[in-house]
Design brief:
This protein has about 80 residues and is mainly beta. About 10% of the residues lie in helices and about 65% in strands.
């Protein structure tokens, strides 16, 4: 049980969680573009492009962000 909790807390794996009108992203490497219609983030192997309206970025932790607004699509492009 301790090992599971430690792996959960120290996870370095990229995670994207889509909820109603929000996206939570954990373990990204860079924010490339931030505006109210499009946000672009990078992880180790791809770019994540979030399209929508009234997008707002809230930085939760060093490697975690929450994007809220009217999300219309999410693209993942391998690099």
């Amino acid at each position: 049980m301790r090992k599971f909790i430690r792996e959960f807390i120290d996870s370095e794996e990229f995670q994207l969680t889509l909820l109603k009108d929000r996206v939570n992203i954990v373990n990204y490497s860079a924010l490339l573009q931030i505006d109210s219609k499009e946000m672009i983030l990078r992880n180790d192997s791809s770019k994540i492009i979030i399209h929508g309206n009234h997008l707002v970025l809230s930085k939760l932790l060093d490697e975690e962000v929450l994007i809220t607004g009217e999300i219309s699509s999410i693209e993942v492009r391998d690099e």
